[in-house]
Amino acid sequence: MGYRFTDLIDACKPEWRAYIEHDFVRQLGAATLGDASFRHYLKQDYLFLIHFARAYALAAYKSSTLADLRQAHEGLKAILDVELDLHVGFCREWGINEDDLAGLPESRATLAYTRFVLDTGNRGDLLDLHVALAPCLIGYGEIANWLNAHPATLRGEANPYDAWIAMYESDEFQGAMHAEMEWHDTRLADATPARFEALTRIFRDATRLEIDFWQMGLDQAD
Ligand SMILES: Cc1ncc(CO)c(N)n1
């Protein structure tokens, strides 16, 4: 019996729900999130995205087939061409210019998460690396969908964070998310139980670090 991507989520249910439904997400959806928290998060996320782009470049380096190389390229494009472009625009709207971004100190939550992913990828193989990256791409796509299904979520001009939700519900981002899930389904199909258990540990740790990232934003922690 083969494993699928959703088996990783099922194996880490409490952590996954705590990540998807974090107070930061709920407050962002209900438009009650403090703007200082959002600004702090935006700045740290800029640093985060740069390291994640590096991690996708590492996935490209670790790819030995054209299909794997293309998949790594898709992830890199989703970050560089969709997210980072929009992100710099958001930062500008929220009064953070590119000079501010260039000189930012990295928070501990950003350091821990990004270096965990890069280390997992350096130490392990391509599947280990993609599993460490999965909560990011797949989680944010799911968060946008969860917010849209949640009755307390405000959309449109009533919510200053509407454009943020729109980015993650966009066809481009949702398409990249689904392509990544399919890649995992193919790879996990022939994993042994022991291998699946080791991958679950990576997935759980990355999800816990996503929870810490939201909390860092909420607390404006350094
Ligand atoms: C912390 C974090 N996780 C995931 C994403 C989605 O790419 C992001 N922008 N930031």
UniProtKB/TrEMBL annotation:
Q: Name one Pfam family in it.
A: TENA_THI-4
Write down the EC number: 3.5.99.2
* All copies of domain Thiaminase-2/PQQC, residue ranges: 11-219
Purpose: Catalyzes an amino-pyrimidine hydrolysis reaction at the C5' of the pyrimidine moiety of thiamine compounds, a reaction that is part of a thiamine salvage pathway.
Q: Catalytic activity, per the record?
A: 4-amino-5-aminomethyl-2-methylpyrimidine + H2O = 4-amino-5-hydroxymethyl-2-methylpyrimidine + NH4(+); thiamine + H2O = 5-(2-hydroxyethyl)-4-methylthiazole + 4-amino-5-hydroxymethyl-2-methylpyrimidine + H(+)
Q: Gene encoding it?
A: tenA
User: What is the designated name of this protein?
Assistant: Aminopyrimidine aminohydrolase
Q: Which keywords are on file for this protein?
A: Hydrolase, Thiamine biosynthesis
PANTHER family from the xrefs? BIFUNCTIONAL TH2 PROTEIN, SI:CH1073-67J19.1-RELATED
In the UniProt record, which is one GO cellular component term?
cytosol
Pathway given in the UniProt record: Cofactor biosynthesis; thiamine diphosphate biosynthesis
Give the similarity note.
Answer: Belongs to the TenA family.
Main enzyme class: hydrolase
Gene Ontology MF, one = thiaminase activity
Does this UniProt record's set of keywords contain Lipid biosynthesis? no
Q: Which residues form a coiled coil?
A: none
Q: Which InterPro entries match?
A: Haem_Oase-like_multi-hlx, Thiaminase-2/PQQC, Thiaminase_II, Thiamine_Salvage_TenA
Quick check: keyword Hydrolase in the entry?
Answer: yes
